[in-house]
Amino acid sequence: MTIDTYILNTQILKNSIISHLDKEVVWGAVLDITSKAMKPQGERKFMKFRGYDIHRWRGSSGGKPKSIEADEFQYIEKLGKKDLLAGIGKCVLIDSGRRDLLCCVHEKSTVENKMIYRYTSNQKAIKTKSRKFRKLRNNLKRDEVIVAELFLPHFKPSTVNKDKFVEYLQERAKVIPVMKAYYLNEDRPAAEDQGAGDFLPFRKMKLSSFINQQQADKRLVKKLRERFGNDAILILGNWSAGNVKYHGPIRGVGMKRMLAKEGFQVYLLDEFRTSSLCPSCQNGELEMFKKVQNSRPYQREKHPIADRHGFLSLRANGERPERFCRLKKSLSTNSKRKNISSSSASTSRLTKRPNNPL
What we know:
- Residues 329-358 are annotated as: Disordered.
- The protein has 358 residues and is an alpha/beta fold.
- It contains 11 helices and 9 strands.
């Protein structure tokens, strides 16, 4: 829990005046600001105790500003003419994504002689066995652990209400023994792991995951060298995205660092508007939608070519046309069947005669 200047002044020190707060005075009431631990630290005194900024909502901690250093990976546009001429015939353009982690195309690749390579997220999951370990953790998890993990999130640890935070601590104290008994198997010796019963050997699984990741990286590097040569120059797009629910994290900077560590020359390419501007004239805009053959044979004489987004142009009032809308629940087939079955069941109950006991 982060204690900022506002919380310290109002909740702990019980001061009523909150305007024009002097951080040194407020924090000096509970801490020794002149002590060695609170003085600026680091080679250039970057680490400083900053207290709390009301307007910018920063927590009370020692912050280190970003140092102005050269970029870790250089953009291909910033290279000199000599370096660009030296890399002719060696460049490999790589596009990153969620499904295709690496989609590689050599600059000499043609339709007849394709020089491409794809490294997908499914390949990574198989080689690193991450999906297998995740299923093991979910399927073999004890019921009391599942109940504890579902129950504890109902109490927020980030609350500033004293009573709610005390309630959270009390509930957490109840589930800690169950969680420790299950997850502390990671720290047990190897002799105890074999007789752990339903407990998973988390320590061994963690080591196996690390080894599998290292081996998968070695296989990827070997494939790239076999496909594009030892002197290949890798040019990756600067695309990046945050984590998405039900999807694994994207390996962006880590992948670039791994390739550079293995001896490849790695450069970045700015992907801003690369899909909408013509690469030849640098000015004309490209078509954003694909032209396809009309799917309706009776209209091909008048309209042989149609856009993929043709039905979107029918939005006269800004809404999707009714013919392209999903049916409402009340009008869906399943609901109709349920209504019919329920009505028939009710009528059958009313008309059903009791069995004659004789």
